[in-house]
Amino acid sequence: MKNQLLRLLVIVAVLAMGQQSGAQVVNSIGDENMKVPQGMKPQEKKAGNPYIADLDTETPYFQYIDSAQTCIYSHDWPQAEQWLLKAFKADPDNPGNSMVLSNIATLQRYQGKLADAVKNYTLALDMTPHAVTLLLNRAALYVEMDSVQRAIDDYERVCELDFYNTEARYSLGVLAMERGDTNRAEDLFNEIKRINPNSGLYHEGMGLLHKRNGNHARAAELFTQLIKVQPTAQLLGHRADCYLAMKRLNDAEEDIRTALEMSPGDPYLYLLRAKLNKLRFQRDDMNRDIDTAVSLGLSRDYINQALNEQ
Hints:
Elements: H1 4-13, H2 29-34, H3 60-73, H4 77-90, H5 97-110, H6 114-127, H7 132-144, H8 148-161, H9 166-178, H10 182-195, H11 200-212, H12 216-229, H13 233-245, H14 249-262, H15 267-279, H16 283-295, H17 300-308
Helix pairs in contact: 1-7, 1-9, 3-4, 4-5, 5-6, 6-7, 7-8, 8-9, 9-10, 9-11, 10-11, 11-12, 12-13, 13-14, 13-15, 14-15, 15-16
C-alpha cells in the first residue's frame, strides 16, 4: 500500500505561497523565463534585458489578470480561474501565457481538478520548458495522483536544470524512502548537505530516515534542532510521532496540540492524536480522531495500518 504520509511530505516540500495544495502561484513572467539549463549563464535583470518584454498593462488581457489576482487574494479559486481563462482567450499568442496557464493549473489543483491541472502545467512547460517552478509544481501534483515515476522524472529534470536545487533532491529522497531504497534516500540528503550544509531539508530528511529506521531518539533530536529555529506543524508532527514511539506521551500531546493550533486541517495530526488516545486507552476519543482524519483525506485502511503498527 502506498505510504500516504510520504506523499504528503513531497507536496509540502514545495510550499511557497502558503496554500494548502503545495503548488506555487507564479506571478513573474520574467522569472519563469529566466530559468535556463545548467551551464548557461542567465543575463542580469536590468533595464533593457531582452528576457523581459515591454508590457501594456492597460489591455483587457492584463485587466483580466488583475481581476484574477483579486480573486486569488480572497481564495475564490473558481472565479480566479475564469478570469485567467478569459485572459488566455483574449490574447492566445501573448508570451505571458506560460504564467497564465501555470496559474490556471494551480487553481484547478486547489479545486481538485487534477487531470485538468496536469494538462495545463504541461502546456505551460511546452512554452517554457526550463521553468523549474512549473516542473516542481507538476511533480508534486504527480505525487498527489500516484504517478510517482512521472514525478521522479520531473524532479530529476529540475536537478539537471538547477544543480543547486535542494527541494527536488529532498522530494526524490522521500520518494526513495517510499520505495524502500534508504541508501538512495541518504545519498540524496547528503547531496543537499554538500550544496548547503545548513539546509533544513537535509536535517528533516535525515530525521525522517532515522525515524523510518527506528532510531526515534536521533530523529527527535534532528526535528528539535529545526523546531528551535522555525517551528512548523509538520516538524512538530514528526517529533510527536517519535515521542509516541518512545512512549513520551505528555511530550507528544504537547506537540500535537501546538501543531493543531497551527494547522487544524492537517489529517496526519488527527492520526497522531488517535495514536496517542489509543496508547491512553481512550477509545471514544481515538475513534473521533480517526473519523476526522478520514474526513480530511486519509484512507481508513492507511489509518488502521498505522494504528496496528504501534
